[in-house]
Specification:
By secondary structure, the chain is α/β, with parallel strands linked by helices. It is 46% helix and 12% strand. It contains 17 helices and 13 strands.
Length: 469
């Protein structure tokens, strides 16, 4: 009995001691668990997701002029790098506009539906209508003072209004005229081409070469297109060879294309069709059609030269052009007795941003624009358009290119001119371009009344801009 009592007492004391010793372990476990919970809460907090829509003028399958890389592949690389550095940012990229004939139809429809892209890259002549309508954000906050100091002030002024920068320019370039040099040399006509160093020529010299090389329907001297407004500067550049002919007077803010000088220029161009020196039916062609005729070597020369150096180089590399084919960039012809034609320029291509209602999203967009305009990326975008960067701290992608080595001294000697005639147009510029395309379509009719067509266009165009506030 005594033994049983001792055993019970021993077990009770042991249980008490074990309970006392276990208590601190419970407290310690609670502390550890609390710390683990706090750590997990910190890790699971994710950055706010920001979706950005970015449209770039172009078409699916189009490639950079300098490297031949697809634009879609190029922008995917650039965007992926930015997204890696900015978790939570998702940028949706699309190529838009070419299938609309170089118009802003896609963007206009999106604006009307209240769903424009957040970011839009295009020529400033198409972007400016949205700035004039008050639909764009100012981009002064997208660049630092150091960035701004690197920009060509003349180019930046094109996209700067009274309140600030409405589009941020990236690249600009020249138009020029292009000749299939190999075709002329193989025909024994190389001596008819413009001579070094400036490569200027008169309309009489042009006609002599044009008539000599023309061999329809196998090969035409040249080609025009007028179905859409796209690349109409290729046509307008001819006005520079007839002093006094201008589509628009920016000082008076009125269209003046019905002047005697313009009638003279248009009459000369129409005579090329009358003689059978152009591919028949310009009214039904777009600029892409001209690309095909050039690559098949069915035309000997045409406008838009700096575009065709890229087309030719890529075509020879990918086999879409059967060589040999050496091209020559020259100036547009000028009438006898007139000074050489001022070199045509492209309106700068630029980034723009549609109005935002989310300040956080706008801040990210401006940061992304800053990233895109940095010299190492901006120069790749400019080169893809056969352009040079508008920043003076960017590398020249064409430093060893003989075409650029030719054009820069020519521009310095004879000047340059914007044959898009977009400067000074108060509003509705793209509507005027559509009217000009219709006028050019009428102009190419065999029995066209050139004076009447130009009179009608001037009346219509001035009526369009008279609607400006």
């Amino acid at each position: 009995m005594f033994t049983k009592i001792r055993l019970i007492l021993f077990m009770a004391v042991t249980a008490f001691l074990l309970a006392a010793c276990a208590q601190p372990q419970v407290v310690e476990k609670e502390v550890v668990v609390t710390k683990e919970v706090e750590k997990e809460v910190t890790v699971v907090v994710a950055p706010e997701r920001i979706d950005i829509t970015m449209w770039v003028f172009g078409s699916e399958g189009s490639a950079k002029a300098d490297t031949g890389e697809l634009w879609s592949d190029f922008y995917s690389r650039v965007i992926n790098e930015y997204e890696k550095q900015h978790p939570g940012v998702n940028i949706n990229f699309f190529l838009r506009g070419v299938e609309a004939g170089g118009t802003t139809t896609f963007v206009d429809a999106a604006v009307a539906a209240g769903t424009p892209p957040d970011i839009y890259y295009d020529g400033t002549f198409r972007i400016q209508k949205y700035a004039q309508a008050g639909l764009l954000e100012l981009l002064d906050g997208a660049i630092t003072e150091k960035d701004k100091a690197a920009y060509d002030p003349g180019i930046l002024s094109v996209t700067t209004g009274p309140d600030g920068i409405w589009a941020l320019p990236i690249g600009t370039g020249y138009v020029a005229y292009v000749i299939n040099k190999t075709m002329f040399e193989e025909a024994g006509l190389g001596d008819l081409l413009p001579q070094e160093p400036d490569r200027n020529w008169t309309t009489d010299e042009f006609l002599k070469a044009c008539r000599a090389i023309n061999d329809p329907p196998n090969r035409y001297c040249t080609m025009f297109f007028a179905k859409t407004p796209s690349f109409d500067t290729s046509f307008n550049n001819w006005f520079g060879g007839f002093p006094g002919c201008d589509l628009y007077d920016k000082e008076k803010q009125e269209y003046v294309a019905n002047s005697p000088e313009c009638v003279e220029a248009m009459t000369f161009l129409h005579s090329l069709q009358e003689e059978g020196l152009t591919v028949p039916g310009p009214s039904g062609f777009v600029d892409d059609d001209q690309d095909g005729y050039w690559k098949r070597q069915e035309i000997a020369m045409t406008g838009g030269g700096f575009w065709y150096n890229g087309v030719t180089t890529r075509g020879l590399e990918d086999g879409s052009i059967k060589g040999p084919m050496e091209y020559l960039l020259v100036n547009y012809p000028h009438k006898p007795g007139a000074p050489p034609t001022p070199m045509g320029t492209w309106d700068p291509h630029a980034w723009s941003v549609f109005k935002q209602d989310n300040p956080k999203k706008l801040a990210v967009i401006l940061d992304f624009i800053n990233y895109l305009q940095q010299p190492e990326i901006g120069v790749q975008i400019a080169a893809g358009w056969n352009e040079v960067s508008v920043r003076n701290d960017a590398l020249n992608p064409w430093a060893d290119d003989p075409d650029w080595a030719w054009v820069v001294p020519v521009v310095q000697k004879y000047g340059a001119k914007n044959y898009y005639y977009s400067s000074g147009v108060p509003c509705n510029y793209n509507e005027v371009r559509l009217a000009w395309a219709e006028a050019r379509q009428a102009f190419w009719e065999p029995d066209a009344d050139i004076q009447q067509i130009l009179d009608d266009f001037v009346g219509q165009a001035n009526g369009i801009i008279a609607e400006c506030d």
